[in-house]
Design a protein that fits this description.
This protein has 13 helices and seven strands. By secondary structure, it is an alpha/beta fold. The chain has one domain: Glycoside hydrolase/deacetylase (TIM Barrel, Alpha-Beta Barrel), CATH 3.20.20. Strands 1, 2, 3, 4, 5, 6 and 7 form a seven-stranded parallel beta sheet that branches. Strand 2, helix 4 (about 75-85) and strand 3 form a beta-alpha-beta unit. Helix 5 packs parallel to helix 7. It is globular. The model is unreliable at about 10-20 (pLDDT under 50).
Length: about 300
Amino acid sequence: MMHSFILRLLLTALVFLRIEAFAQTLADRLGYPPGTKLVIIHADDLAETHAVNAAAIKALEAGAVNSASIMVPCPWFPEMADYAKTHPDADLGLHLTLTAERVYYRWGPAAPRDRVPTLVDNNGYFHHDWDQHPSINPKDVETELRAQIERALAMGVHPTHLDSHQYRLIMNGKEIFEVMVRVAHDYHLPIFVTKDWFAEHPYLETSVGPKDIVLDHTVTIEPSVTPDKWDDFYLTALKNLQPGVTEFVIHPGFADEELRAATRERDTWGAAWRQRDYDFFTSDKFRRTLADEHIQVVTWRELAKRAAK
């Protein structure tokens, strides 16, 4: 009876400890004052096209965007690699890429195609999506992730973090996510994962360790938001920001002829979408809202530095 009572007490204590750990924000854990609201304004898809690179670089240098990630397999990667070499303080991660979702604009693996056979189609490009190709081999995933990181390092990019194009590494099961975690640990890099995803994908929480950086929240705009409501969506998100660390995942780009051609088969994440993101996050209203709401910006480099203490 006594042993049973003690066991119940221990289990109850563990539950409370887990709840307390979950309730504690990343900002709290890293030593920021209680209630601090931190944001990473993060540009995705660098290297996809020159128009995306140009917009992201301009936003980074203006201070409107303070972090970004680069797609190593894409044609415009050398341009971003050169930028990374000449701007070593820029907060640039790798947007680990395993799909080529556009119809007329494609890319393939960094690894030899015969070493990642489940990742490529008959033409040697990444699959458009994984819905029609459910038998992705995690070993092929690991081979390709390491190839992308090694290519980046060889070309002078020293990434501050890793994230996943189209969340393929995040949303496709425990085995594939654990490949990402293992590779990230081997290269001593944090990965973009947030508590917002734990309820729908519980394996995320069980796969990360106490030393991993787990963001509190993420914000990204959805196709259901109409162009006339674009600014309202972001302003509402900023005004309702919760304490902790939130990453805004955005997709800036200049809606020029190149980007319109590359993304012409659909509007979602297309040229006009990316121009709207660029316009909002370089606007005075965005800067004023940060100040009015007492929101601080932070980078992955800063988070990793604090976590290492």
